[in-house]
């Protein structure tokens, strides 16, 4: 058996099993995140939310999935058919590929590579292409305007996110995500780097096109934004991609600032729960904040969105990066 596991077929089988063990829970999480969002928003607006399909509405995500599967996929007559259908698949695939380097526990990563942060940067940067292709291939001015908005928004906030991540990496001295978590055994980084934690979380809202930064999907002026022409499973893939990115960004926030799978304190009863449970609980806390923000804040104007990204977050994160480097150098934590 050991000999088989070292053959190419055995390595492929192990990788496939690891991939399914990670992606199946992620997809189930995406399905139930849609239900959780509707339930939380309903509670905040003093109404019930989905409560008919199954006990407490727990089968609602499956009813929605079946409805999407049974609908017809309509391709507009003036659209580029191949790119139109490729765009949602690209968005969904990139959302899944990013999970390859996420460590759920120590040693629990499909690919525990030393440049995990760079891999995530590359995947998240490619994510904008799915939106741009969808907007252009739809042959609709509303979809195209939504795609342009999304491209500008994601590029703008990726810059400040980059400076935030560089600040964390300076404190760690490694690009490996497992090393980032282990560096927080004494204190989680959200305490010494609290302003950067806030900037990073707000930037993840903009990066995932979530309220109050959901301008690419502005119903009031763009009908529905870049996916206005989509229906059936092509629309569902965009939907799944957005919610999978929400979970991914929450996982990244957990790894960079909230200690990953580490408990708050290494004493009972905190250390009784296994690491993956702590990791999931922290992700759920971040996702709840995503939904809370949506229920609380009105949508920004586009000029306000750009001003916040370029005139507030970018200079502040750059100044904090320099200050962090200076403190680490003076205290001797930063290598020469």
From TrEMBL:
This is NADH-quinone oxidoreductase subunit H. NCBIfam families: PRK06076.1-2, PRK06076.1-6. The keyword Transmembrane applies. The lineage of its organism: Bacteria, Pseudomonadati, Pseudomonadota, Alphaproteobacteria, Acetobacterales. GO terms for biological process: aerobic respiration. It is a multi-pass membrane protein. NDH-1 shuttles electrons from NADH, via FMN and iron-sulfur (Fe-S) centers, to quinones in the respiratory chain. The immediate electron acceptor for the enzyme in this species is believed to be ubiquinone. Couples the redox reaction to proton translocation (for every two electrons transferred, four hydrogen ions are translocated across the cytoplasmic membrane), and thus conserves the redox energy in a proton gradient. This subunit may bind ubiquinone. Its EC number is 7.1.1.-. GO terms for cellular component: plasma membrane. Pfam families: NADHdh. GO terms for molecular function: NADH dehydrogenase activity; oxidoreductase activity, acting on NAD(P)H, quinone or similar compound as acceptor; quinone binding. It comes from Roseicella aquatilis. The keyword Membrane applies. Belongs to the complex I subunit 1 family. It catalyses: a quinone + NADH + 5 H(+)(in) = a quinol + NAD(+) + 4 H(+)(out). InterPro entries: NADH_UbQ_OxRdtase_su1/FPO, NADH_UbQ_OxRdtase_su1_CS. HAMAP family: NDH1_NuoH.
């Amino acid at each position: 058996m050991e000999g088989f596991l070292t053959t190419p077929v055995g390595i492929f089988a192990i990788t496939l099993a690891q991939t399914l063990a990670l992606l199946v829970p992620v997809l189930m999480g995406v399905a139930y995140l849609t239900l959780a969002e509707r339930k939380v928003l309903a509670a905040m607006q003093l109404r019930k939310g989905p409560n008919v399909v199954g006990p407490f509405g727990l089968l609602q995500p499956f009813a929605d999935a079946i409805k999407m599967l049974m609908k017809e996929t309509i391709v507009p007559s003036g659209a580029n058919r191949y790119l139109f259908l490729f765009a949602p698949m690209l968005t969904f695939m990139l959302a899944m590929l990013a999970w390859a380097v996420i460590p759920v526990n120590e040693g629990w990563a499909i690919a525990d590579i030393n440049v995990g942060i760079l891999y995530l940067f590359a995947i998240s940067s490619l994510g904008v292409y799915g939106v741009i292709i969808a907007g252009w291939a739809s042959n609709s001015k509303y979809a195209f305007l939504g795609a342009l908005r999304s491209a500008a928004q994601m590029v703008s906030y990726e810059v400040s996110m980059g400076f935030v991540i560089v600040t964390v990496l300076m404190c760690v001295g490694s690009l490996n995500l497992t090393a980032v978590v282990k560096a927080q055994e004494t204190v989680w980084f959200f305490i010494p780097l609290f302003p950067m934690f806030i900037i990073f979380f707000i930037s993840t809202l903009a990066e995932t096109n979530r309220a109050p930064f959901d301008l690419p999907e502005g119903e009031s002026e763009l009908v529905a934004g870049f996916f206005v022409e989509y229906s059936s499973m092509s629309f569902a893939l965009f939907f799944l991609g957005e919610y999978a990115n929400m979970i991914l960004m929450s996982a990244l926030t957990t790894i960079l600032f909230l200690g990953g799978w580490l408990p708050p304190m290494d004493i009972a009863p905190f250390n009784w729960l296994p690491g993956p449970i702590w990791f999931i609980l922290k992700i759920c806390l971040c996702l709840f904040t995503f939904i809370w923000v949506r229920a609380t804040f009105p949508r920004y104007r586009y000029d306000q969105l750009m001003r916040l990204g370029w005139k507030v977050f970018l200079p502040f994160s750059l100044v904090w990066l320099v200050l962090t480097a200076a403190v680490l150098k003076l205290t001797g934590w930063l290598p020469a």
